[in-house]
Structure formats: structure tokens, C-alpha cells
Specification:
single chain; about 450 residues; mainly alpha; Ammonium transporter fold; two-stranded antiparallel ribbon; 15 helices; about 0% strand
Length: about 450
């Protein structure tokens, strides 16, 4: 068993901080996209996850995700509850005779994984922005983190059944994005539409806030993907490079069809395209060459541009396009990992279909299908339980007032501050949707 490498440990701890920083970035990204009367409640969804999920992770989440295998690879169990036996001076946990943390302390691996556990349910919140009770959100957050996130993390990363099948997910295409995107679909369907949607569509109240949040996400994503190498070496460097080129290509992959379809490129569209590319490159980042990262990112940008409009076709109100970006982008990235994976980049992976290994594509699709089926079923069940016990949907009166005041007794801006003219449920003729998925129509001057 290897000892502790201080350089690798320094990188993993730095990457952990970068991933944590992504959650406030997500809060700003989402907060800028909603109406002024709901900005604080939307930001609170992400920020509150940093506290609650951390304590759930300490008590039982890490043990269920990375404890010894139980139930045929479905869940971890038997140790690490309350972080017992999580060492600060030795690698771990040991799976297949080798520590998952590589040459870093077990506790460093645990805290790195925690930051993924924090941001994943925060991603879901974009689907039900502007209409979920805060108490219902808190209950759903804790239950989902424990009963959906931790089991799927065990399947893929903790030595579970998908881990043993050789499913490749370097930094969270299935565990984070497909998992959260599927839960987002369940939430959007279960809670129903916002008052007046899609007839009354409100514009983002603060696009610069959205751009700042997206920039923080892009910055933090280098820790998200690069840190998943669990060492400061060639694989981390490759993942870092792939992450950047995947996002850059996706920005153009979104902008080109938006320009063709609507005659202009929007700022919200450009940043959403970049995020879609970051989503898609996540599972592939430690396994592919830069040119493949460009192909994956560009494909994700184009596909997600069209995917965000599915909510209008099928009638589910996904407020901030979590399904179109994270679920669809995650699927694109997971499947294309099976095409472009290259053992010359990472010997711990496998070759993909471009090297004749079509079985890897099939394995990736099985991982996608299993994650969607489990997350969808359990997410619906948890929503029903929370709704039946404490209630989950804000009242119509609270929705009209705005969740900032009705749920938190706060307002983001004073009455004299400049802000959106859209307040308290007023219809906005010709405005942009809160997310980037609405047909473009310039607001009247």
C-alpha cells in the first residue's frame, strides 16, 4: 500500500476547495436567472446544501457511499458512520486491494467526495425554483442525499456493481449530472407548473449575476475534474486541459444554432452552452485527448440547445433547464466517453469504440439507464413522502408574493434599487424565459 504523498494531498485539498466554491457559483448562476422576488430563496437552496448535506455526509452519507460492499454492490455499510475509522494519516478506503484515495489520506478523499455530494442536490433546485416550500426542500435534500446520491456514488466510485462492470465516469457524469437531472425531471413533473407558465414568462432579473456564477463554475470545474485524478500528475493535467476545451467548444456549439434559429447570440445562451460542455466533459475528462474533448463539448452544446425546448413540447416546467443541460448533457458525455476513451491517456480506464471496443459503449449505456431508473423512482417516492407529511409546494399566495418574503422574510433589493419590472407574478409580454430554453422575443422598449 502506498504512503502519503504531500504534493498529491495538497492538490486534492485544493481541488476540494475549488469544488466547494462551485456551489456559491451555482447559487449566483441560478439566482440571476429567476425573478427578483425569488432570488434569495433560489440562492438559499444552494447555500443551505453546503451545511445540511455536510452533516448528513458525516453521519451516514459517506459510509453508505464508500463503506464495504453490501447487497451485491448496491450500497456501502459496516464502517465509516460518523467518519469512524476515516484516517488522516493513511490512504483508504481499500477496494480490490488498493486504496481509492491513491497516495492521499483517507480523510482528504472523504472531504473531496463531500463537495460532490453537496453540489449534486443543489443542481436539482433549478428545476423547482420559484415554487417549493423551504421546509419541504430541506427534508427532500437530506433524504435524497442519503438515499439516492450515496447509493449511486457507491455503484460507480465506491466499488459497487457498476464499478466492477468497468463503467467509466471520471468525475460525475452519471453520479452527479444524470442523477441530478433525472431528479430534476421528477421534481418538475411532481410539483407542476409555476403560476401562469408558460403563458406568462419572466426574464432573468440579473444577467451579470448569472455570468459571474457561470464563470465561477468554469473556474471551479478544474478542481471538479482535475482533482478526480487524486494526484498532481499527468492524468490531472489531461483532465484539466480536456475540461477547458470541452467548455470552449460547447459555447460555440450552442451559439451557432442559436444564431441560425434566432438571428443573434444571447449572453444567457452562451454561458448555458459553456455549462453544458462542462457537464458533458465531466465523465470523459480523465480518459480522452483534447480533440475528443472538443468533439464532446461541441456535440453537447448543440444537443442541449435543442433539448431545453423539450419542456415546452412535453409541458413540464423545468424552471432553469436542469433537465435539458444536466440530464441530456450528462447522457451525451457518458455515452461519448465510451466512444473516445483512450488507455494511452489513462491506463486505469479502457479503450472506447474508436479503438474497436464497442462493449464500452454498451457498458456506459447500462450505467446511464440504471442511474435514470433508480433516481427517477426514488425521487418520486421521496417527493410523495415529503408532500404527504409536511407539504412541498408553496401556496399560490406565497408564489405571487415571492418566496423571498414568504419563506425567508427578506428582500434582495430595497424598493428603490434598480431591478426587473417583473414582480409579484405580473405577466411579461415578449420577455425571455427564466432559463435559456424559451423562444427568443425581444422585450418591448
Amino acid at each position: 500500500m502506498p504512503g502519503i504523498n504531500t504534493g498529491d494531498t495538497a492538490w486534492v485539498l485544493t481541488a476540494s476547495a475549488l469544488v466547494l466554491f462551485m456551489t456559491p457559483g451555482l447559487a449566483l448562476f441560478y439566482g440571476g436567472l429567476v425573478r427578483q422576488k425569488n432570488v434569495l430563496s433560489t440562492i438559499m437552496h444552494s447555500f443551505f446544501a453546503m451545511g445540511l448535506v455536510s452533516l448528513v455526509w458525516l453521519a451516514a452519507g459517506y459510509a453508505l457511499g464508500f463503506g464495504p460492499d453490501r447487497l451485491g454492490g448496491f450500497i456501502g455499510w459496516g464502517r465509516y458512520f460518523g467518519l469512524d475509522k476515516v484516517a488522516f494519516d493513511a490512504p483508504g478506503p481499500v477496494v480490490g486491494g488498493a486504496p481509492l484515495s491513491g497516495a492521499t489520506p483517507h480523510a482528504a478523499y472523504m472531504i473531496f467526495q463531500l463537495m460532490f455530494a453537496v453540489i449534486t442536490p443543489a443542481l436539482i433546485s433549478g428545476a423547482f425554483a420559484e415554487r417549493m416550500k423551504f421546509s419541504g426542500y430541506a427534508a427532500f435534500l437530506a433524504l435524497w442525499s442519503l438515499l439516492v446520491y450515496s447509493p449511486v456514488a457507491h455503484w460507480v466510485w465506491g466499488g459497487g456493481w457498476l464499478f466492477r462492470r468497468g463503467v467509466l465516469d471520471f468525475a460525475g457524469g452519471t453520479v452527479v449530472h444524470i442523477n441530478a437531472g433525472t431528479a430534476a425531471l421528477a421534481c418538475a413533473v411532481y410539483l407542476g407548473r409555476r403560476r401562469g407558465w408558460p403563458r406568462e414568462i419572466a426574464p432573468p432579473h440579473n444577467v451579470p449575476m448569472c455570468v459571474l456564477g457561470a464563470g465561477i463554475l468554469w473556474f471551479g470545474w478544474f478542481g471538479f475534474n482535475g482533482g478526480s485524478a487524486l494526484g498532481a500528475g499527468a492524468v490531472a493535467t489531461s483532465a484539466f486541459v480536456a475540461t477547458h476545451f470541452g467548455a470552449a467548444a460547447a459555447l460555440l456549439g450552442w451559439a451557432i444554432p442559436e444564431r441560425i434559429k434566432h438571428g443573434r447570440v444571447t449572453t444567457v445562451g452562451a454561458v448555458t452552452g459553456a455549462v453544458a460542455g462542462l457537464v458533458a466533459i465531466t465523465p470523459a475528462s480523465g480518459y480522452v485527448r483534447p480533440w475528443a474533448a472538443v468533439a464532446i463539448g461541441f456535440a453537447a452544446g448543440m444537443i442541449c440547445f435543442f433539448a431545453v425546448n423539450l419542456k415546452f413540447r412535453f409541458g413540464f416546467d423545468d424552471s432553469l433547464d436542469v433537465v435539458g443541460v444536466h440530464l441530456v448533457g450528462g447522457i451525451v458525455g457518458a455515452v461519448l466517453t465510451g466512444f473516445f476513451a483512450d488507455r494511452g491517456i489513462n491506463a486505469a480506464g479502457d479503450n472506447g469504440a474508436i479503438f474497436g471496443n464497442w462493449a464500452q459503449v454498451l457498458d456506459q449505456m447500462k450505467g446511464v439507464g440504471a442511474t435514470i431508473a433508480y433516481s427517477l423512482a426514488v425521487s418520486f417516492l421521496l417527493l410523495w413522502i415529503v408532500d404527504a407529511t409536511i407539504g412541498i409546494r408553496a401556496s399560490e399566495e406565497d408564489e405571487v408574493t415571492g418566496l423571498d418574503l414568504s419563506q425567508h422574510s427578506e428582500a434582495a433589493y430595497s424598493a428603490g434599487d434598480a431591478g426587473t419590472a417583473v414582480g409579484h407574478g405580473a405577466p411579461v409580454p415578449g420577455g425571455l424565459a427564466a432559463g435559456p430554453g424559451a423562444p427568443y422575443a425581444p422585450a418591448p422598449r
